[in-house]
Amino acid sequence: MELVLKQGLPRLKSFNRLQVIIQHLSMSGTADSSPEVLLEKKGCAGVITMNRPKALNALNLSMVRQIYPQLKKWEQDPDTFLIIIKGAGEKAFCAGGDIRAVSESRRSGDRVAQDFFREEYTLNNAIGTCKKPYVALIGGITMGGGVGMSVHGHFRVATEKTLFAMPETALGLFPDVGGGYFLPRLSGKLGFYLALTGFRLKGRDVQKAGVATHFIEAEKVAALEKDLTELKSPSKENVGEILDLYHKKCKLDQEKEFILAEHMDKINSLFSANSMEEIIQKLKKDGSPFALKQLETISKMSPTSLKMTFRQLREGASMNLQEVLVMEYRLSQACMRGHDFYEGVRTVLIDRDQSPKWKPATLEEVTDEFLDSCFQSLGTNDLKLQ
Has this prediction a pTM greater than 0.85? Predict the structure, then answer.
């Protein structure tokens, strides 16, 4: 996994890094007899461990079906005062959803594509509405589905090993799992930038961006978990105080400026637009090395995904989480009916040629009428949330 975690790799290698991650995501783990999820009561806390380290704890449907009922049970249990979620191993919290199972469901004709997104988003909503304090220990790779398992909870604790990204536009998808809710609520146009380019944030930058609420050294995570589970009948405030204490004690990279700080004015200006085409025009007109780099990155992405994502974030900015998830379920099914998701999986996972042939191939060919159809109600098949 050096390909994923090595510092300072050129942006041109992003597809190679994505390929390595997705290869891990595609591993079924059938040879491993370990349970995919560990659900334990430790002291005052319910602890969820996503336990597929060889597959970077990629989230599959059976994991969702184990976590959701236990989360609801702990939420109602008077002896459970907080919920902690983490990933097994040192490499990942959760690097995303099980892409292979979803992409192969079209050939087999089963319901995985419908059921996975429906139940995953229902779980995302349960996390976002959980009445008990929810603490996600997001050490290692946290992408896609892993973001959905963490970002809607009360607390997200990053470490120097955290690697955050929403790389879906390179896969013919869109930053789902409630991305349309949390991304436009980041500072300025940062969320639009992260969503459209798939830019990766590492370590303390994940907290400085507002994705994580706290930052601690990886070696302190076990002690933090112990301190949390040993609290006596804690409130959300008590949990917050412990996390604040660890965060304040951590001096690692404290003086380091946010990696995008020098570019934020440009990001806010260039990514403020009424259309994806307008962003492209602004980047071309600006012509700075930073703008041209973004142009090069965006040119590799699915035009359909880019336009879908741009509209998703614009509309999501004024929606609540439930409304966003209903919208995103409609978009997920549009992607499953379309071409680019399967082409994205082909180019990154199967043929590994990093030469996607997107259809349509240009932004101009992705019509408003087509986009409207992606956002349309599915009627009785719409996602229904409590």
Answer: yes
